[in-house]
Amino acid sequence: MRRQMWGLRLRVLGKVLRSVKSLSRELARRQIAAPNSVPLPKIGIALGGGFARGIAHIGVLKVLEEENIPISFVAGTSVGALIGAIYCSGASAAEMEEIACRVRFRDFARWTISRYGFASNRRMAGLLNSVLKVKTFEELRIPLAVAATDFASGNGVIFRSGDLVETVRASCAYPGMFEPIRIDNKVLVDGMLAHPVPTKPLREMGAERVLAIHLKGRWDVGGVPRHLFDVIGQCFAIAQENSAALWRPWADLLIEPEVKAFKYDDFEHSCELVHAGEAAMRAGLADLRAWLNLLPAAGLPAAIPNPAAVPAD
Fold it and tell me: Is residue 74 part of a domain?
């Protein structure tokens, strides 16, 4: 009985500490001010797709949190939509890192051959319901846009209202692997096909500066694919690179975590992926902070040059 009481107290204490961290992050976002009192630009962050490699997004968010960099808008595609939804619902980067380091493929999907895919991501609904602190876009602490692709027209579909769980599932409906998701009489598949890195939606939401997180796929010349999904993944990577001209002009700063060494399904290396995101974001911090006039340089640059954090063309 005494042991149960201690366990209950520890769980309550953990919730209190997480709430305090969340409140501190919210206050920092609202109260941080530039030394010369120049109004802060509204920063939007675009989280691209990349399956397991997308865990690197958590490392990026972790650094932004630690540096008290205020994020006004988030847009996500595929795994970027999943991570963006959890973050915007109020989870801290530390909480997300803890979840990521123990999540495996079986926690959000299962292999089951159907007419439309080799696996089902219905389990993702259970995972999201267990980690999301709210269930609709309207309840989010930070405005979020989730990108999916209309299978019939090929056009991008951007969600900013309504149910979170099903829209994130649609954004993550990786062709060939997961079944398409039907929402509002539309058959939807992975958002990477239309919005590899959803930068433009951030501008439409009101972002004055856009930070794009691009996860390059594996480009091992001469490498032999292990199976069908390596082939599909490489095709996605090729399409993403070839469509860069569509999304890069909307970005002010491009961060590319070093994730080439990781396979698309490397969930067992989640902690290393988080570290890769941290390293890439730290390399671009000086330029990002310049947007907030927190460095001696006056004014806000139109484009940010940095050899480590690639400037958008």
Answer: yes
Q: At what angle do helices 123-131 and 164-171 cross, to 10 degrees?
A: 130
- Residue 68's region, left for phi above 0, alpha for psi from -120 to 50, else beta, is left
Within-domain flag for 119 = yes
Question: What domain range is 196 assigned to?
Answer: 40-291
The answer to whether position 222 is within a domain reads yes
Tell me the range of 14-18, 117-121, 203-207 where mean pLDDT is highest.
Answer: 203-207
Cα distances (angstroms) measured from residue 124 to each of 10, 165, 216, 222: 28, 8, 24, 34
* Cβ atoms of residues 253 and 305 within 8 Å: no
CA–CA gap between residue 154 and residue 5 (Å, rounded):
55
From the list 72, 78, 120, 270, the catalytic residue is: 78
Whole-model pTM?
Answer: 0.78
Q: Which residues pair with 150 in a beta bridge?
A: 188
Instruction: Give the relative orientation of helices 164-171 and 79-88 as an angle to the nearest 10 degrees.
Output: 150
Reply yes or no on whether 190 is catalytic: yes
Question: What digits encode the pLDDT tens for the residues 189-246?
Answer: 999 889 999 999 999 999 999 999 999 865 554 567 776 667 766 777 777 777 778 8
Whole-angstrom Cα distance, residue 88 to residue 80?
Answer: 12
Please identify which of the residues 190, 252, 270, 287 carries the catalytic annotation. Answer: 190
